[in-house]
Amino acid sequence: MSKRPPRLLIPRDEVVPDAEGLALLRSHFDVVTGDEARSLLRGIDTPPDAVLTPAADAPDAVELDQIDAASQAMLAITPESIEKTNSVERLKWLEGTVTAVVRDRLGWEHFEVRLLNRKTSQLELVIAVGLRPLPVGESIFAKPEGNGISGYVATTGQPYLCPDVRADPRYRLGLENAGSSLTVPLLLAGEVIGVFNVEDARPGAFSEHDLARARVVARSIALSLHLLNLLVVERFTTRKSTCEILSAEIRAPLDEITQAVLAFRTSQELDVTAREALDRIVASVERARGAIDLCSAGPKSLLGLERTLRECRTNPLLEGKTVLVVDDDASIRDTISSVLTRVGCEVVACESGRDALTSMNVISGRSGHLDLVISDVKLPDLNGYEVFRSARDRYASVPIILMTGFGYDPHHSIVRASQEGLSSILFKPFRADQLVEEVTRALGADGPAR
């Protein structure tokens, strides 16, 4: 049985030799050229024995080292920098750093970064430059079929070069009038954590050399996102734990103060003034206890609620304004509704993103006007950015406020919405009067409704 000749792929038409040269190559190799070579190069499971590319496409170790050195700027993340910035500022900084490397060093104008959600297998958009996001309700999953090239790459862990998107059934629309794309996995310790996708309007815009360059950048993107997430989660967990410990430590001394005051009050002959003073001390201790309990409840609470409800009055500039409140926590949802109702708003409360979309359709169908949307970033079905996009698709100028617990934004909704006109951000636990102030500001009313 004769041995199979080594396979040589020539995917670039400009380097295919003339007839005589091609015949010479075929006397030694199984030569595949043109579209067939490009197709094999994209989807082949077993690597070819050789690929013939232009000399300029040969990876230059010096250039790759320079790209790697430039990409190290993405890793300049420290606990100190995390502490001094909020989640929006941190991800904006990272996006700016990634964009500088990809645009200035590689010359690519249209790209996106998606992170893999291991619970749902969804590839969630984190950074998008020059590419339009998917329509609301559509998602990409780490599956080999039906989820575009990104889904295929996330499943196989293999890079994918698409020289002509019109001829590739795996391609899913990203860049308007796209011609070609390249996609590489974001790898961490050998595991896929996301994908880095680049597109161009020109067919055949990317080469094997570009794949090598993309791999270098993808390595730093993966490390920086992982490091950023670790530090943010640590900060989130530490703050929550600190609040719980503080609450437990202070509760006993407050109990002792209350018991001591009550014992003194009942054991002594006191005049009315003294008794009233002791009663005020007990009431103050109880208020302190309530405030500590609210802090320990963290994202499930609003601070200063009792005082705000007591002092708020209807603001004529807010009266009758329709506000959509979206949060899967009934306590937060009901509390926000109570505060906004007190200042005169008409509140529509929803416990999920899908409910919010339905409510928007109902309001729109009645020819009604939606004046403001307040949504948590983490919902059981959609994320905050998807609610933001849905609202803006229906009401182009509606102001939107997003909420997040302790600054935790796993889907990076706030950064993406901030780029498209997000009105404000509320970091739970926030004060009830702060809610009123932000709503007043978003609706353009003069002065807080107090």
Describe this protein's structure.
With 450 residues, this protein is α/β, with parallel strands linked by helices. It folds into 4 domains: 7-51, no CATH class; 58-234, GAF domain (Beta-Lactamase), CATH 3.30.450.40; 238-300; 305-442, Rossmann fold (3-Layer(aba) Sandwich), CATH 3.40.50. It has helices spanning 19-26, 34-43, 61-71, 79-84, 87-105, 148-156, 208-267, 272-297, 305-311, 330-342, 353-365, 384-394, 413-418, 432-442, and strands at residues 7-10, 30-33, 50-51, 110-117, 122-129, 160-162, 180-188, 191-200, 322-326, 346-350, 372-376, 400-405, 424-428. Helix 1 (19-26) links the parallel strand 1 and strand 2. Helix 7 (208-267) runs antiparallel to helix 8. It is elongated and about 115 Å long.
List keywords for this structure.
450 residues; alpha/beta; Beta-Lactamase; 4 domains; 5-stranded antiparallel β-sheet; 5-stranded parallel β-sheet; 14 helices; elongated; disordered C terminus
Distance between the termini: 91 Å
Helix content: 40-55%
CATH class of the largest domain: Alpha Beta
Helix/strand/pairing class, anyone?
alpha/beta
Low-confidence region ranges:
446-450
Based on CA atoms alone, the radius of gyration comes out at: 29 Å
In the CATH hierarchy, the third-tier topology of the largest domain is known as: Beta-Lactamase
N-to-C SSE string, H for helix and E for strand: EHEHEHHHEEHEEEHHHEHEHEHEHEH
CATH superfamily annotation of the largest domain: GAF domain
Strand line-up across the major sheet? 5-4-8-7-6
